[in-house]
Batch of 2 targets.
Target 1
Amino acid sequence: MSGTAEKGGGNLLRSLDYSVLQQCMHCGMCLPACPTYVETLRERSSPRGRIAMMRAIADGDLETSRVFAEEMYFCLGCLACQTACPAGVDYATLIEQSRAQVEASGVLDRGQRRLVRTLLLRWVFTSRRRIKLLAKALYLFQRSGLRRVVRASGLLWLLPAKLRDLEPLTPEIQSTFTRRLYEQRYRSLNPTSPRFRVGVLSGCVQDIAFSHVNADTIAVLQVNGCEVILPEAQQCCGSLHAHNGDLASARDLARANIDAFSTEEGGVDAIIVNAGGCGSHLRHYDRLLADDVEYAGRAAAWSQKVRDICEFLVEIDFRPPPASPDADVLRVTYHESCHLKHGQGVSAQPRRILESIPGVELTELAEADWCCGSAGIYNITQPEMSMKLLDRKMGHIGDIRPQVVATGNPGCVIQIEHGLRLKGLSARVQHPVSLLAAAYERSRVEAAQRDFSPESLIVEGS
Amino acid sequence: MDSAVLSQFRSIIGDDQVLDSAEDLSVYAYDGTATLRVAPACVLLPETVQQVAAIMTVAHSQRLPVITRGSGTGLAGGAVPVEGGIVLCLVRMDRIIEVDEANLAMVVEPGVITQRVADAAAAAGLFYPPDPGSIKISTIGGNVANNSGGLRGLKYGVTRDYVMALQVVLADGQILNTGTKCVKDVAGFTLKDLFIGSEGTLGVITSINLKLIPPPAAKQTMIAHFESMTDAARTVSEIIRHKIIPCTLEFLDRVTIGCVEEYVAIGLPLDVEALLLIEVDGHPAEVAEQAAEIERLAGEHGAREVRRAHSEEEATRLASARRTAFSALARLAPTVVLEDVTVPRSELARMVSHIAQVSERYGVKIGTFGHMGDGNLHPTFLTDERDAREMGRVEQAMREVFEFAVELGGTITGEHGVGLAKKPFLPAAIGPVAMDITRRLKADFDPEGILNPGKIFD
Ligand SMILES: Cc1cc2nc3c(=O)[nH]c(=O)nc-3n(C[C@H](O)[C@H](O)[C@H](O)COP(=O)(O)OP(=O)(O)OC[C@H]3O[C@@H](n4cnc5c(N)ncnc54)[C@H](O)[C@@H]3O)c2cc1C
Ligand code: SF4
Ligand code: SF4
């Protein structure tokens, strides 16, 4: 067969427990849930078709070809198929293994792609220091006025189309990252006799572009009686690596995080994540490190402790806020992050939280759990399909015109904000905990005002 | 495949709708049936009836086998290709042409997903009852070609009962229109009926005129728990004997309940031997009366508990749990082979206990569920296709189940069709006269034998 390669000799799909592949009985029940199938109506772009190709490769009937490789990256990795599958197929493992197989075979290798991959996966995203450094540079570019000059000058047109389209998708970098916020404000607010001791994962994108969401996460945990710690040595969760065929780096990062959280004195009751994509991956450290003699046991214990912030709040019976976050009624809708819903099964909890907030009027979004096209770095690698999905999402949002689109994953926030701008829709995008934190904050201010209001003074004085 | 022929196809439907890469061919090698896999020579995805007719003209002149395909969820191997064959996949012909509220009818292309048919009818305040377990993904063309049943078959019948007219492209590319929008029509033979259930062997269905009905005003869903399978079967017979026709009367055994609950987690009891899912619909007063009567009958025949669904949402959850039964059984074994035997309803208890005996005698695990109200059971064999010895035992066990069904006055397939899976058993089930007529009809419609060759009979 032309253009195929099996470099490195190994066949990672063959090394996979065959029962994982055989679990799919090709009934097709997942097809209507798969965004790439519904858009293309091609069997090979369906979960059933993808698994059939994986199995054919494991059986030696098909080679790890370029067509196969491209199909593996055309898959969003949204895991909607996994939720839909009655047979319990573990698609997450299959797609990770397949992408690793693609990378091992080298069929997609071209100078530029390899360089970018090595730079990002092996160098930038394996070190928090380098991530922050890059973020600082980006921040300076965005705030110094340089960006305005660049945008106005038309210089962007010198970039290849893919990169040029990317520019509006770069998130606004925050001036202060999570660690500094924590040290400056929150560490001292930890309750003195806490109900739980929890560790918060600050994430990469969340940390540099949405550090306020991390701050809100810490704040709501504290309001609910949790002592929050933020382990210094924590790293990127490694989902970017695992989803892009670099399982070795993913394993290194997993081990580093397990170490970082366990060296904290006394350990933690739960590991809290507020980004759907990271959480879904963190929960699977057990699977990722299953063959690691030293870490397998610790990874299993770790996976037991990982909680999405909304899930955890509901689990510990969070305090409903007495006040509303805004003076007026807020029309809110909820978009489900794929990896929160399909990767972690967290779907009712964020809605429970939103419904508990006074003044919030929650309207269901049609196809709330249909991928928005963000899908990690999918909007960069597959802009065309990504835009189709974004259009579909915007159509539904346009139908109900909410003031706030609440969602629990930074990738979705960036993508949906981008879509809203393109369509000229005026909603803002927020994490559910940010609305909750705002409601708690207003409750606190109102209570303080009540306590110190002139009337209360008069009553006391009379 | 011959490149000149391929380029003819490309000029008919466009380059990107002709697939022939090794990868594409490997993913159209199967349908929903276990263990069957044959890669075709090419896959064509036409969008219009003219394109289908042009493709058939070429295929006919070249004597190329054509395997029509919808979503490939069939369970008898009907859409599994033959070597050198063309897969004609109709999923792109997915327009709803018209919802005719005045005549209670709907015209659709064959690639429309069954669920969309039901939704479009509901949006017009009407009702399309046939609801196969695969409703969310099966195509209406596939439903017609297999004359599919569903969970509501007991009261509302099967796909055939809702087909008023068909447009069919014949083997040589001619276009046949058969049937009208009229409720009464005796102009000539009712040719449309020949194509319903013909499994792609007589023609390619390109347009379907469906009958719709007014929806029932009320419904009530119930679940009855039993500690013995025979009690459940007897309850079914009793309900029917009391002249109550529920719209749904579905059955799950212990093995199936466990798998379904693992998937949907809706609190099904795990310690019972059998569970009946019952739905009555109609006028509110009638519904209330029938529900009470069913509760009484179930109680008298050993039901441990009868639980009513409290909301529409709960009812839907229960029904969709039942729909996934077959796929959910795959949690227990790598290969699941399901049967589709149907017996007269009075014989259900005997059939059910025979299946249990067979399972024990051959040492193969069987999960059974099905449309008990129709007498249509799906004993599902849980096995591993890589274990040749066990597969041998499975085959023998299946044969015994078939033979017993026929002995009881039943049939080898209630709704999935014959395809490849039941082909060896057809002659015994329908007899030599029917086989002869079937062959003659086929020869007449398809003299070159290019339409889904090797399916139903040789
Ligand atoms: C989980 C599950 C549950 C199911 N539940 C039920 C059920 O409750 N009741 C039931 O009856 N079936 C059920 N089925 C079987 C199957 O879904 C039905 O037979 C369905 O009608 C097949 O539709 P399809 O579009 O997938 O057809 P395919 O599998 O693609 O094709 C089926 C047959 O029809 C032919 N065909 C398809 N389209 C056309 C056309 N336009 N013109 C001519 N021939 C055509 C094919 O050649 C083939 O022989 C179930 C299947 C699964 C996987
Ligand atoms: S992944 Fe699951 S739902 Fe999809 S075809 Fe396979 S078994 Fe069926
Ligand atoms: S992960 Fe998403 S895109 Fe990929 S096969 Fe599953 S449903 Fe389709």
Target 2
Amino acid sequence: MAAPETSDPWDHLRALPMGRRVEISDGAGHTWTGTVVPRHELSGDRILPLKLDNGYNIGILIEPGFRVRELPPAPSPPTNGVSSPAPTPSGTSPVVLLTTGGTIASRVDYTTGGVRPVREEREILAFYPELAHSGPVRIVPVFDRLSENIVPADWPILARHVVESFAAGARGVVVAHGTDTLGFTAAALAFLLRDLPGPVVLVGAQRSPDRPSSDGSSNLDAAVTLARDGRFGEVVVLMHAGLSDDRFAIHRATWVRKMHSSRRDAFESRNAPPLGRVESGRVHLDQPAAPPASGPPRVDGPLDDRAVLLWMYPGLDPTVADRFVDGQRGVVLAGTGLGHTAATHLDWIRRRVAAGTVVAMTTQCLGGNADPYVYATGRELLEAGVTYLDDLLPETAYVKMLWALGHAPEPDGVRRLLRQSLAGEFLDRHRPAGAA
Amino acid sequence: MKAGLEVHQQLATGKLFCACPSELTEEVGPTFVRRLRATSGENLRVDRAASLQAERGLRYRYETGPANCLVDMDEEPPHPMNEAALDTALTLAVLLDARPVDEIAVMRKIVIDGSNTSGFQRTALIAMGGHLDLASGRSVSIQSICLEEDAARRMGEESGEVTYRLDRLGIPLIEIATGPDVRSGPEAREVAEEIGALLRATRRVRRGIGTIREDLNVSTDGGQRIEIKGVQELRLVHEYVEGEVRRQEVLLAVREALRARQAHVGDPGGVDVTARFSDIVQGPLSAASRHEGPILALALPGFGGLLRSAPGSDERLGRELADQARAAGLRGLLHSDELPNYGVTADHVAAVRADLGSGPDDAFALLTDRSPERARGALRRVAERAAAALDGIPGETRDPLPDGRTRYSRPLPGGDRMYPETDVPPIPVTPERIARIRARLPERPSARLARLAHDHGLGTEVVRQVVYGDLEDRFEELTGRGHSPVLVARLLTQELPAAAPDGGFEPSPATLDALLGAAESGRIAKEGIPTVLRGLANGAPSVEAAIGAAGLGGFTAQDLDAVVARVVDANAELVRRRGPESFSALMGDVMKEVRGRRDGREVAEALRRAIARGGRGPDAVGAA
Ligand SMILES: [Zn+2]
């Protein structure tokens, strides 16, 4: 049904379903023919996005005098359909892939222009049809969230899925995760999982899988290789070792940090080189990793999330910092340098410690130890009751704090657990990088 | 025939989606290696054949350098689109009377040959419609004006690894596509020149070989669309178009002959005739050349005599078939129209014919390769191409060759796989922006032509060569330094191209300045300019050195008078008898000695003076 001449063509067009073919005339001799596609959320007012027959999208500002004609739909190109899982060789124990969402399992959302996580096994296989080519892989979707939306309550759920996977005969477990908070989840799993009989490999992608250059495919491939062939029982992160698609670094979960917003090799082991690498489909361990445990794996929970992480900086108002700690059982400070704060913070720290809050100190340098003995400020903080956590990354320390709070009712117990090595997280030897 | 052009011009604005310069470099820093895979794109579809077969195992190595940042390496999201590049594209839209879109959507065009680190080319349609008016009064329609990223430079391939250099990746390209309105080769060239001049008028384009590339779409009645991709030599545009028309005419005539004979194509599996060549010792079929690979024959019943060139033409069906064999990785093929030859004897031919059951009207093709599988694959392609000859001319993409011919490159690409570049938000094209561009439009080439002709008192034809031959900047620079416009125009349009007909000789403005200065000061004659240019083209380090090496310098007015006196004295009798009429007889003798060393007009005057004096030389005058 054609719209009445007098009506606003924009009212007609905005009501059209996506995929409708139209011809627009501006009355000045210009005509556009194409298919109506979703509006970008940043598109201007009265802009009609149109996909032309040559494949280009354009936006046309629809003025009141424009004429619109609906056309019969163009024949749509044949779709190959979504592939079904490849038959898996029987007799070998599979690798289990737990998906949580994130770039590695996301697709472009053409409405918002962003990427959104995929939800189903078949969607994941559509992206990674070659996944099961080298051996059996079972895919278990756990979450479908970008990693910025993962919360501490999710970590024990994920840990239980890991344990169940091993219980069901998995050789190793891969966790596909968004990269933003992948380091937090990795550390959490390292503290939550005990007696692992095989590798737990967290993997992500810095480029979405809808682009031919995505690192998701090669990362996932290497992660599956590591989960299948790795002879160790701990939680690690596997990502690109450099800019090339042929070398992958194996990072201990508690040492790793995302150090770049976009590079493929954004993940770095701080304070030490990576545990090893995957190269040409082979696993090389350069440092000792925890050996596989013989007993059944278990989840060593719970977590208590009543803790905060506070970055110290010049100008931070002590009263604001103090209020931030309200209602918390613990706070991890990312201090300057060797683990310092302005002297103006000593007062609230003393009060909070006295009231039973655990205050822990790390360095925002993200390398080297927090050390209270070198400067007077450190000694004063130590006296105020601050627990120094050596070379723990602030994020790792925060996660460890949640775990320790979940495991000890009293501040002293929490402090003792914080100082104790639970997952190979402390390094007592810092070697110069690139030393001969 | 109908033809359309796609002109791709690099911009000098800096790269399209990052802050790197639009510059090529020989400096190579670290390299990295990637693999690309076909992806599902918009509709969650995977081109499985492509992802699992063709792309598996192909590695791409990328060379980085001073013209690169993380964006070029696909390690950082694209920055907002380069404003100067967009303004340049919109300027072209206004100049061509095209209608800009109101909101630009940057698209990803999937390209998985490794020439883009991301696996796609970013491209945006900026404007549609419009027209280009030619001097002939004809008008050619404009279909679209796009702005896109140039691809990385392919440096080579070795054992499954293709190397690209990233300097060129991301340089903005304006793509202007005309409608299929071009009617002849010369018109195609005129369109290319006119668009090129319009682009240069913006003063934002890169210059030099490879900075502007044309794709030519040609179709004739009865033929399919042929795309000649990546023509860099503007002066060859009309040759490619005309050559393509000739090729299609020849092939259509061959089709008629094939149909009349009810020709057909034999078993595309081929027949192994290796045993028939056990005694061959030389040529491509010898055991040494084919590395023990098999020799396969394809029967072509009814093709006899139709694979070779028609009289007076270089085009032939045999070459089309050989192109397919080459595209499949073979060195070529032999066909019966060119045999016996290449070590193949009449006995071999007879033996193959016997194997194939061929008669005198039949043809066959012989293919060989060390890999039997590759040889069989090539034979299937040759059989397909031969079968297509019965239908006419298959649509395809062809590569331009330096000699003005073209060669099969690949089938026509299917529809582009394009989906939105979600990392770049839509870009509004506001009326204010268009108004600002309208207010600052560059001088159109036609106006510039008229202005230069008027200001310098030059003929339109010579100014046309200056403006459309990409010479206007140098022309204005040299005339700006006070040199004679006539001299400068002649230097740029005639003498300079003649000095190095093969190109590659581009003396600096300072060199040309020195050369013109030498001619204008009388240090050398204007006629000596080509000699000095040849010297420079052959490697002389400076204008002075070239003048010295050619023996043109240091020949004074006195030296000229002495030569004139000698010639007049030697012909004293003639001069006495015929007086001034002896001038033309003697001028030739004098010029033989002084050409290029003194100005021709000056020589003529000196000779006239000497003749008027009745054969007495300057010394005699001095003595009187
Ligand atoms: Zn760049």
